[in-house]
């Protein structure tokens, strides 16, 4: 079925202006997607596991299966959709991927969302519906936010600041993300710099990499996948980790002595939104699933499962108790990925130099 045959589509801007309800989740289909199934492509791990469980409830009600494909990161996700657009229905890009969608794919992979088809999207706070990474386009709906701060072993560390991880006592027990953009963004936060300003000012750019070298002094390894840093912290090879709040909660629930802090200087903010693939012929079904996911009870189930806050109006304790929860988008640091992505190759080259020291 196609969307919009018998009604006028509604944009997010219209929804926010009129108070109407709207929201959409990125939906991508996999090989074999047909009238009795829709295909979802996303990053793996605990987040995808939680989504599988809640989406299965919708399948039981609707009779439509959701097939799942897991990828390593958002770049691979976009590449697969671009190469095989007819095989995907929806997905959940992060804010950097939405920037890539515009810069690398001319905003052609995803369809403009008909927010009127997702009345339960009204359960998301208005300020988060218009979060910075969604402004200027209507290709996604807000899903959840998380942060990349400091996870730590509570028996050996108690950091509150990025400066704390430079303490000589933490030599060879620190692991940071093996990602040039993430490291650049977090180091900018540490130095109270706007990354967009730093990439356009030679002196500030060098200041950032000088600080990255200072942080490197205590690093015994850089991690690439979330499971890797969790293992290092769990096995007490690392006492301090540049990690995510939700995964830290998973370790804490398993009775490991861990804590998490958003450093006082701020840190990289990740947020995701659902997006619907332009080539999908199952848009009506995707909208119905998204509407199901935005029901309060189901949104809470998702948050409990992956431990990241879905920003509901009047959120329950199960959501406000998340390590990554903040009430307002202005309380976290947002980055202009449109400015950072064009110099990704240079960032990676310089980051490799830091790691080789």
Give a quick set of tags describing it.
single chain; 357 residues; alpha/beta; D-Maltodextrin-Binding Protein, domain 2; globular; disordered N terminus
Question: How does this structure look, described?
Answer:
With 357 residues, this protein is an alpha/beta fold. It has 2 domains: 12-145 and 270-331, Periplasmic binding protein-like II (D-Maltodextrin-Binding Protein, domain 2, 3-Layer(aba) Sandwich); 146-268 and 335-355, 3-Layer(aba) Sandwich (D-Maltodextrin-Binding Protein, domain 2), CATH 3.40.190. The chain contains 15 helices and 9 strands. The chain has helices spanning 12-18, 46-62, 74-83, 95-105, 126-129, 180-190, 195-198, 202-216, 226-234, 245-253, 283-293, 296-306, 317-320, 337-340, 344-355, and strands spanning 37-43, 65-71, 90-91, 141-153, 174-177, 219-223, 240-244, 258-261, 268-276. Strands 1, 2, 3, 4, 5, 6, 7, 8 and 9 form a 9-stranded mixed beta sheet that branches. Helix 2 (46-62) packs antiparallel against helix 12, helix 3 runs parallel beside helix 4 and helix 6 (180-190) packs across helix 15 (344-355). The longest helix is centred in the first third of the chain and has 17 residues, at 46-62. It is globular. The N and C termini lie far apart (57 Å). The relative contact order is 0.20.
């Amino acid at each position: 079925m196609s969307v919009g045959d018998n009604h006028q589509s509604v944009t997010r801007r219209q929804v926010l202006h009129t108070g109407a309800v709207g929201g959409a989740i990125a939906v991508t289909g996999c090989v074999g997607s047909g009238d009795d199934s829709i295909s979802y492509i996303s990053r793996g791990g605990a987040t995808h596991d939680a989504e599988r469980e809640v989406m299965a409830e919708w399948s039981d009600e609707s009779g439509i299966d959701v097939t799942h494909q897991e990828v390593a990161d958002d770049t691979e996700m976009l590449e697969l959709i671009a190469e095989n657009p007819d095989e995907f229905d929806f997905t959940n890009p992060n804010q950097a991927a939405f920037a890539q969608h515009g810069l690398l794919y001319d905003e052609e992979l995803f369809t403009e969302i008909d927010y009127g088809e997702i009345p339960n999207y009204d359960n998301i706070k208005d300020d988060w519906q218009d979060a910075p990474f969604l402004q200027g386009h209507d290709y996604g709906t807000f899903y959840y936010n998380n942060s990349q701060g400091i996870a730590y072993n509570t028996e050996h560390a108690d950091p509150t600041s990025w400066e704390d991880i430079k303490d000589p006592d933490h030599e060879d027990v620190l692991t940071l993300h093996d990602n040039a953009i993430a490291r650049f963004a977090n180091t900018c936060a540490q130095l109270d710099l706007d990354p967009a300003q730093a990439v356009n000012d030679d002196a500030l750019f060098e200041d950032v990499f000088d600080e990255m070298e200072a942080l490197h002094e205590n690093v015994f390894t850089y991690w690439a996948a979330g499971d890797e840093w969790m293992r290092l912290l769990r096995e007490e090879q690392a006492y301090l980790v540049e990690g995510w709040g939700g995964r830290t909660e998973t370790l804490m629930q398993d009775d490991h002595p861990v804590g998490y802090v958003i450093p006082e200087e701020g840190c990289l903010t990740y947020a995701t939104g659902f997006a619907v693939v332009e080539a999908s012929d199952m848009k009506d079904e995707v909208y119905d699933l998204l509407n199901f996911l935005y029901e309060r009870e189901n949104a809470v189930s998702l948050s409990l499962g992956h431990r990241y806050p879905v920003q509901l109006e009047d959120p329950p304790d199960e959501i406000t108790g998340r390590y990554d929860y903040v009430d307002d988008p202005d309380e976290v640091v947002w980055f202009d990925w449109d400015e950072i992505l064009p110099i990704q190759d240079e960032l990676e080259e310089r980051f490799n130099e830091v790691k080789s020291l």
